[in-house]
């Protein structure tokens, strides 16, 4: 993970990811810049996914400590 992203909150990372998607969707981005945006987007996507997984693990631990057994399933979009 690059230094410029590792301190972002989930919300900040999602906001930056949305901006990148908007830029790429316009189609007016030079190829080299599009590749750079794509790479950044993949990093931000992984960061968000990791943060969600971390929260799910914490919630499962809390619920298990209180006698509630639960699993979290993330629906994947096709």
UniProtKB/TrEMBL annotation:
Q: Which UniProt keywords apply?
A: Cytoplasm, Exonuclease, Hydrolase, Nuclease
Q: Which InterPro entries match?
A: Exonuc_VII_S, Exonuc_VII_ssu_sf
Location(s), subcellular: Cytoplasm
User: This protein's superkingdom?
Assistant: Bacteria
Which catalytic reaction applies to this protein? Exonucleolytic cleavage in either 5'- to 3'- or 3'- to 5'-direction to yield nucleoside 5'-phosphates
Task: Show the Gene3D superfamilies listed in the entry.
Answer: Exonuclease VII, small subunit (1.10.287.1040)
Write down the Pfam families for this protein, in alphabetical order.
Exonuc_VII_S
The keyword Manganese is assigned to this record: no
* EC number from the UniProt entry: 3.1.11.6
Instruction: Name the job this protein performs.
Output: Bidirectionally degrades single-stranded DNA into large acid-insoluble oligonucleotides, which are then degraded further into small acid-soluble oligonucleotides.
What is annotated about its quaternary structure and interactions?
Answer: Heterooligomer composed of large and small subunits.
Family designation: Belongs to the XseB family.
Q: What is this protein called?
A: Exodeoxyribonuclease 7 small subunit
The record lists the organism as: Oceanobacillus luteolus
Q: What is the lineage of its organism?
A: Bacteria, Bacillati, Bacillota, Bacilli, Bacillales
* Gene responsible for this protein: xseB
């Amino acid at each position: 993970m690059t230094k410029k992203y590792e301190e972002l909150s989930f919300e900040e990372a999602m906001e930056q990811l949305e901006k990148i998607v908007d830029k790429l969707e316009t189609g007016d981005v030079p190829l080299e810049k599009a590749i750079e945006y794509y790479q950044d987007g993949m990093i931000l996507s992984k960061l968000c996914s990791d943060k969600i997984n971390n929260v799910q693990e914490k919630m499962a631990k809390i619920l298990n400590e209180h006698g509630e057994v639960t699993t979290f399933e993330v629906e994947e979009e096709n």
